[in-house]
Amino acid sequence: MRNELIKPIITAAVLCVAFSGCATRPLPLYAGTGKVDITPAQPVISAEGQSFRLPDNTPPEKRTPLGNVHDPLYARVVVLKNKNVSFAIVSADLMLFSSKRVIDEARKRWSIEHVILSATHTHSGMVPRGLCPTAGGWEWRSAEADPGELLNWPALSEDPWYAETEDKIIAAIGEAAGNLFPARLAAGKGTYESIYLGHNRRLIRPAHGVVPRSVITLWDNPTRMPTTPSDPTVGVIRIEDEARKPRAFMVHYACHPISMMGSSMITADFPGAMTDYIERQLGDSCMAMFLQGAAGDINPYETNMRGAYGLNMTRQAGIALAKAALGVSENLPSPEEPKAVVQVKESMLDIADREGNKSSAACVASVVINRDLALVAMPGEIFVQHQLNLSERSSIPNTFLLGIAYCGLGSPFLNYIPTAQAVEEGGYGATQFSFVAADAGDRMVDAAVAAIDELVGE
Hints:
alpha+beta, 25 strands
């Protein structure tokens, strides 16, 4: 029975949108944006060069001097609202951000019914105290059990920086909700391939004679050797005001931001360079946002870089992605009217662990706009094949899977979500640091496809 459980979580607004005639008629659409600096005033870097918020009693040999902040970390917010639905999406320049407090306060203070918290997953952004309890260990991941149970997520707020970050994001959601404008929304996608991003880091070596098949983790790929699967798709969501001036520009792409990982440096990595370039091109009134996709097994071609070379390569990677996204946008028509159908469904699943003796609650949040755009949020590091499968099966032409995303229900984070084939093959992210059943990702995609079909009436 556990493997068959898919429960819809429906608020009154969702009931109206998803199941009555009010969903079929476009209503005036309003949008707002917010952006806030969340860079720690006193970042502390571990001796391994990782950006950890170390405990105050960490011995000196386990820490390095205050981190070199190369570029600021931001949280960016887009709020969409019509008569029936209010929805906010947050993208934070952090490795992981899951805060039920932010979601609850957004609902309580600003009447935002649905919130998706996503992280760019930069490994050079700050990791809060409590998420990594020692100066370089990820014991909660090594335990291969649900972090939703192993970690005290509300206690993360005991770190003053994290509590301040939550407050800032709550305020940014309020800023966006309090400065709404009639909005036109367009979405599209295109193919993006470059010398910077990205490759599948799981290299499968076939059996040869008495040597069995093996999996090699290809952290770097300087020769740009082709690996599969990967998704060279860049997705774009452009939001304009009544004067057809761009006010928000969202870019969806799947790749780990680990170009400068372990460099003892604070940086938003290539997503930061991408958003910076887009905002300079489109002007101060437009906020850019990076939406991380199913990057569980996708890396940049070069990782763990250092010095001027690494920073320049990271910047060029972001600029190249930005240019590709702007190119996609050039071919997107602007809607005639600032109206839209916005639909939301949150589906709860009971996900078995790999041993079959425990389970975790997982929420898949699906947002459909104008039957042209679907955002699907999943709380884990999703292998890219799941993104490809969702895109192929979805009835919505622009369907973007958001990995490392949390909507306030179920476990905040489920570690890696591999494919069944990857579990059979083994290796990093498949049998290491992954505890869910081999069919977990397939079931999450099934739930998303079912939700999308239900919302569009198919």
